[in-house]
Queue: 3 jobs
Job 1
Amino acid sequence: MRIPALIAAAALGLAATVPAAPLLAQVKLAASTPAAGAKAKGTKVVTLTFSEKLNPSDVGATIVMTAMPGMKDHPEMLIRNFTASWSADGKTMTLTLKKPLPAGTYDVRWEATGADRRATKGVVTFTVS
Ligand SMILES: [Cu+2]
């Protein structure tokens, strides 16, 4: 009796309170290396695995150093020396650094537009010693 219930709710102006199962789920980060909160060592590769196949041109990622041992008030420092590549299944983006990341705290900030055409963003924070 799902349809009559929806019609009744709409008639009462309550359609927004009816939980609707979206046909397309919003893109999510399924996994990363290093993982969020990880204490890593000698990191030269960062991977982001998404919940669905993505078009590489719909995804952006930056690596930002936010803290460094022994340095107070470290300004955000954009790490640029990496190249991005994609897995054959279109779900995993790999950022390969030219040199391992120096000791410090990093944010990997990503933004992706999935099949539902909604942009989602997120951040993975980890520490390198
Ligand atoms: Cu730094």
Job 2
Amino acid sequence: MAYSKQFLGLSFSLVSVILSGCGGGSNSCPSESFKLGDIEVDSCFDTRSAQTLKKDWEFFNDLNIEGAGGDEKRDFIVADIKNLLEIDGPLTHTNIEDWLFSRVNHIVPPNYNFKKVKSSDKSFRYENPTAIPHEDIMIKVEDIQDNQKEFREMGVLMMNIGGLVYLSGKKEGVLYEMELNSGKNVEIKSPRAGVIIPGSQFKDFTKAEAKQGDNKAIKILRLATLWHEARHSDGNGASLGLLHDKCPNDHPAKGEYICENKRNGPYHIGAKMMRLMGNICSDCTTAENELLDELYLDSLGRITFTDEDEKQLRETLATSEAFLEKGTKNDVPLTAEEIDDLTKKINESKEKLKELYPDPKPEGVN
Ligand SMILES: [Zn+2]
């Protein structure tokens, strides 16, 4: 999700490319719209990018998601994904796709003309109208329209533009509509509008693969990024968009909004999806597996509260609760001060856990 350059994640290579392709006129529109499962890929994609999306999706369809477990490590990843995506029962192609399809509806071409985002005449009331996360650094639709070239060159792989327009609209108190190249009009009435746009990094990779051959690690990164972006379609009020957080002072990207302090955010989902697909990629080469490890570590490097931190926090909570229980039953007599300390520790741990798991329920959805 992006409202300033800093928000845009997965930027391990920041080479800018001036985008080429159709100018939006129907005569120069090189591709028709098509579908990836339930996701509608808008028309006017350049042929190469359209091909990349299609091939990535074929690759995903061939993955044996149902056989993703098998040993302790793999079972752990499967459990993590199920937990993050709130999937009951076994992990299957269908439920993992359905999660994506309810959050991503359209992919527009990298050169989508932002002038096609228009304010609607319809009156619309935003849920929690004053609760806007990271309000101070958010950019407006108008800013994007005035700086289309710069916006496209930001060096990101993909962006949840529907979520960004929703946030901007909410801040401005305006309902926006996005006219797609196919002629369809999408009203941006919730973060679940689900419109994704590939960034310049997408084109860089596609171009590199055209020269060097397909790279399965990059395919997995692009696919995982769809699930990352899908997470930005969630949230309400303060949790709207499950936005990236500011990196702490001891982080190399100190002060930039490319970190994640939460435990259920887009970086977690993207990273775990990458790991899942990497584990079941039967014909990934050593070089591809090494690149996947690097990409996975890059994502983990943005997560400031680690698996280990959470384990410790939960242990502290459980131990404190057990002590307090023994104390209240008088098995181990406690002083009033000790009871106070334990109660404080329990409340703080519970509060922290709540903070780490912001509510993903999307606003504006009935
Ligand atoms: Zn993101």
Job 3
Amino acid sequence: MAPEDPIRREDLRGTWAMEHADDIPPARRKELTRLALEHGLESAESIRDREIPLFNRGQWGFSNSGTFLRVPFLHDMRELGGQDVAFVGVPLDTGTTFRSGTRWGPEAMRRISSLSGGSNLVLGVDLVESLTMVDVGDVSVIPANIEKSFDQIDRAIGYIIERGVFPVVLGGDHSIGYPDIRGLARYIDGNVGIIHFDRHSDLSEYNMDERMHGTPFFHATNIPNAPPTNLVQIGIGGWTSSRDGLRNARERRATVITIDDVDRYGIERVCEYALEIAWKNARCVYLSFDIDCMDPAFAPGTGTPEPGGLLPREVFQMLRLIAREGLAGMEVVEVSPPYDVADVTSLLGTRVIMEVLGTLVLNRKLGRIPQRDEAPGEPSAGSAEADRG
Ligand SMILES: [Mn+2]
């Protein structure tokens, strides 16, 4: 056949490929799908494709960077229970209103977390010795549909809470804060307080007609047992704040602490005050940490940077004060690796998590502190087990 001959449809390689597309029986793929559903659990009811498991078991992208702190990967979600901590990725960025990219946050944080072995000799804590930790992979979010994604996230976080495990959510943009709290609050017999670090108030009802990343706390504080009077926002300010957000904060009597307030009253007093508000008549407190509360000089890899933010050292001090009363779960959101430089933002995200976990261990709110003379596996006198729940 010469190149100048007319093209005939039946001679096209594409035609051949169409005819032979089903020649290779997909037996192994079917088996993998079946196992993924068995191990990854059933999706929320709003998901039409019932072959999508609740926890992604490898069929889709976003996470191929190992596990957080190299802890074991828990493949079979039916085995969740009895561990102290579950790292769970929520690779969603369709809630962003400006720069996206946070769908790569869980992957980047997992990858850079391998830099640390999990112990801090200055604090005197070794997370590996004190906590039983697993990485449960990512929630199967539906990037084209934020409400379906919320259903998935709510169900996934609810499952982790129901099993009595402390969830560490690797975001994802801040829209996930709402379903994270919705999933948590369902299993709390009493009120949930929220301590929210951010440069933005995230209290609008809608962004561009949808529940995007500037709206999570409006909807979260509509949940009957997550009242806005137990919401404390720290780090708010700058030139991207929303009038709606502040109006809603005022009407709902939320507590807003700006960077200026932190400077004026000092870290200790501000944190004492935040704890008082968040814990007032509350059964537990949830920590929502937006990486953009820190100055973009330290955290450039984020969607809506706002100059003049907190410094990493200030944040670590604050986290050590706030986490010492215990937490029911936490999220680190808005890490956007495509805008990052040398992984510094992802690294900061991992350190926020580790400072919190270390503080929870040191204050006997999670895990246990093994004693020197103790036989392996034997609970120490200082076991925190009794403090949990
Ligand atoms: Mn923010």
